[in-house]
């Protein structure tokens, strides 16, 4: 398939995914606030964004984007604004972070979690930069114009992401059941997650 050092790629991708960042914090926030189901749908949304980034890299659009600094900056700042918005929303919201949803709201929660995860990932240009910098290192030079190796690496990356974020979801979902009855814990979790998102958004806007 034109891929070289596949095991090294798996190790590198695993390390990158496990490094705390925007996606990790988003999954934890959703899992703790809305339960395991929401965390799983957030995971699916995030990794759907990974697949989209892979597709764009495979057909060359990501590299074209990096050639036009203005377009790249627009996407970067849109992503930063969205993440900062989520942070402020978490801080000022009067709704409890640890949700006690009834069954009628579960469908809406699933859709919102999936879409939010997808948007959060798509608007993070760090992913496009990572794929463009890393993927060619594990593809034979004569296969760089072939989209299949990109897709295989991207699907591998998404699979690792699904496994890791699902593990986080199970842990965080269990944690959430233990603090539903603690208003103080809920209030501080909202503030902490909000501050973290604001800091991550500012880092994204400033180019890390």
Whole-number average pLDDT? 76
Helix content: over 70%
The description of the largest β-sheet is:
none
| DSSP summary: helix tally | 9
Query: Could you name the ranges where pLDDT drops below 50 across 5 or more consecutive residues?
Result: 100-106
Q: What is the quaternary state of this protein? A: single chain
Rounded radius of gyration (Å): 18 Å
Number of strands: 0
Tell me the distance between the termini.
Answer: 34 Å
The ordered string of helix (H) and strand (E) elements is HHHHHHHHH
Report the structural category: mainly alpha
Proportion in β-strands:
under 5%
Shape, please?
globular
Outline the structure in words.
The chain is mostly helical. The protein contains nine helices and no strands. It has helices at 6-18, 22-34, 36-58, 61-67, 69-92, 106-122, 125-134, 147-177, 183-205. α2 (22-34) runs antiparallel to α6 (106-122) and α3 (36-58) packs parallel to α6 (106-122). The two termini are 34 Å apart.
Summarize the structure.
The protein has 208 residues and is mainly α. The chain has 9 helices and no strands.
List the helices and strands and how they pair.
Layout: H1 6-18, H2 22-34, H3 36-58, H4 61-67, H5 69-92, H6 106-122, H7 125-134, H8 147-177, H9 183-205
Helix pairs in contact: 1-8, 2-3, 2-6, 2-8, 2-9, 3-6, 3-7, 3-8, 5-9
Primary descriptors:
208 residues, mainly alpha, 77% helix
């Amino acid at each position: 398939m034109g891929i070289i050092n596949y095991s090294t790629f798996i190790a590198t991708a695993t390390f990158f995914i496990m490094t705390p960042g925007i996606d990790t914090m988003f999954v934890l926030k959703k899992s703790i606030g809305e339960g395991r189901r929401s965390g799983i749908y957030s995971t699916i949304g995030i990794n759907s964004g990974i697949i989209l980034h892979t597709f764009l890299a495979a057909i060359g659009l990501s590299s074209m984007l990096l050639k036009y600094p203005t377009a790249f900056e627009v996407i970067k700042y849109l992503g930063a604004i969205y993440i900062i918005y989520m942070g402020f929303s978490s801080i000022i919201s009067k709704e409890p972070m640890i949700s006690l949803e009834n069954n009628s709201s579960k469908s809406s929660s699933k859709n919102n979690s999936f879409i939010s995860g997808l948007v959060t990932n798509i608007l993070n240009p760090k992913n496009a930069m990572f794929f463009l910098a890393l993927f060619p290192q594990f593809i034979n030079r004569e296969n760089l114009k072939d989209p299949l190796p990109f897709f295989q690496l991207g699907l591998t990356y998404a699979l690792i992401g699904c496994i890791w974020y699902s593990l986080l979801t199970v842990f965080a979902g269990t944690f959430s059941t233990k603090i539903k009855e603690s208003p103080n814990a809920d209030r501080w979790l909202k503030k902490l997650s909000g501050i973290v998102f604001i800091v991550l958004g500012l880092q994204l806007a400033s180019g890390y």
